[in-house]
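Sequence and structure are kept together here, with a separate record for every protein. An example record follows, reproduced without changes.
>
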Amino acid sequence: MAKLGLLLLKGLKSKKGRSLRRAPFLKNEPNKKRKNRANKSASPKRKNASPAQNQVEPIQETQPIQLQQSTVPQEQTGQPIHLASTDLLRPHARLQKSIEDFLLDLRSEHTRRAYGKDLKRFLQFLIERKFRRGPEALDRSVIINYKDYLLSEKLQHTTIDRHLATLKSFFRWLVEDELILKSPAENVRFLNPKKTSSTHGFSDDEVRNILKIPDLHTKTGSLHYAILMVLFYCGLRRSELCELNLSQIGFERGHHFFRFKGKGNAERIVVLVEPVWNAVQYYLKMSNKHHLPPGTEIPLFTPVRNNRTGVKEKPLDSSMIYYIVTRYAKLAGIKNRVSPHSCRATAISNARDHNAPDRVIQEFAGWSTT
């Protein structure tokens, strides 16, 4: 007891006379009392201020927050979406990822572009109806509802069947890659519209009248004339014409020809008869491409001017081919509805009129079957 009393007495004396020694782990810590006094003296005094308002709260050090890695929607970051199958933030985006992979697996650029438009419309249909699941959750009823939706949009039956064919190809690809067990579009029926085509070909007189119109003294006229000659005589598709390259012109056994990849990535060889080659050669001279060596990798048909970007060494847009055909048909006084496919139909009809064998017509048109 005596010893305990002595220790208490010493503690009181040390508290009155001098400050207690700091613990070793507090040597580097700043004196909080001095900081509080400095803050009080620097801040202006407020009247009727409560003691709680004059006190400065000490800054507390906090640990940095560890964020878990998660998938962020494309609309927020602008980056492409890469989603796992267990993603819960945007499950419907797994379908978009599957569509992107499917399109990358297609070989033909034209097919990729056409399928992409159809699948984009289907994806938009699902988003508007707040579909929040992956492709494995789609069933036959969803595809039938989409078919009814296309009918309500007043689309032609051939267009609706094309959309259904795109979906069948897409889901068949998912089944083959074992991403889904069964295609939801497997038993959805086509509308099977009438096989009669609404495309009208040109008569011989109409073709002659159209070919008289382009002004061959200008670069634009020579370009349009060469394009029309290739369409009427060679029967190329609009996409095939736009993708022609100067290196795809060949010469063998006294004839010039085009060698290119057609629909379905199939190789096609189309012979250029003398009037067509003369038109192409004249266009090359007017566009200063005739001096280029064979095998030069540049587009064959390029814009004469480009008021938007100024870039002229690029392929023509397919809409430009449609404009050329419809413009000259109108100038020639043709009242029927025509398109670049009308030129292709004219070339194939002429081949039939000259009693060409079906096998020759099949190769000439680039058909898989006759």
